[in-house]
Amino acid sequence: MKILALADVESEYYYNFYTPGKLDDFDLILSCGDLPKAYLEFFVTLSNCPLLYVRGNHDDTFGERPPEGCECVEDRIFVQNGIRILGLGGSFRYRDGDNMYTEFQMEMRIRRLWFQLRKYHGFDILLTHAPARYINDFDSMSHRGFVCFRKLLERYQPRYFIHGHIHRCYGVHIPRQSRFEETTVINACEHFAFDY
Fold first, then answer.
1. Rounded distance between C-alpha atoms, residue 77 and residue 86, angstroms
2. Over 90: is that where the pLDDT of 172 sits?
3. Alpha carbons 45 and 162: distance in angstroms, whole number
4. Staple 105 to which of 18, 54, 71, 101, CB 3.0 to 4.6 Å?
5. Closest CA to 9 of 189, 194, 174, 170
6. Could you tell me the CATH number of the domain that includes residue 7?
């Protein structure tokens, strides 16, 4: 399965310089948040595959006006072609906002998923906006990762952890792809295509 992951920054290659057929090879599109509603609708309209998304810390309007044709996978496990995808959007709380959480609040979101985690025997992809703590995050409150995400990775060993929020322009040292134990970690800022 060929997957296109998106986050944070509009892709010039796929959006500004779109040509017919450019999205035809993808079987699934995953959005990690902080992308405009019209942008997501563009992708789901011009591709022949589902688009699943979680909300970023700047996606406060998505609750009332979600992107049409796209599937929000917040706080649930969504199965697509046999792949179990767990969605947890939002970032570490550094100001007021609908999609910002303290560590405790995110931990409570995860605890409420216990039945789904048991029913599906874990998950294959963790799709989030924020990174995990100490895995490509920063110490600043606005770009700190969640410890509970790290615990999820340690316990369930998913094949992929896909996140956004850490823009690649923040520094040359920011990895695009890395490993944490058995999990491949992908920073989907702008776009990243991979084969599952």
1. 4
2. no
3. 23
4. 101
5. 189
6. 3.60.21.10
Write out the two tokens for 99.
Answer: 């999609």
The count of structural domains within the chain is 1
What is the pairing mode between strands 177-180 and 183-187? Answer: antiparallel
Q: How many CB atoms lie within 10 A of CB 46?
A: 15
Please tell me the number of Cα atoms within 13 Å of 23 on its side-chain side: 23
pLDDT of 23-61, one tens digit each? 999 999 999 999 999 999 999 999 999 999 999 999 998
89, pLDDT greater than 80: yes
Q: Give the pLDDT band of residue 66 (cuts 50, 70, 90).
A: very high
Contact 132, 111 (CB under 8 A): no
- In this prediction, residue 186 carries a pLDDT of 97
Which range marks the domain in which residue 191 is found? 2-195
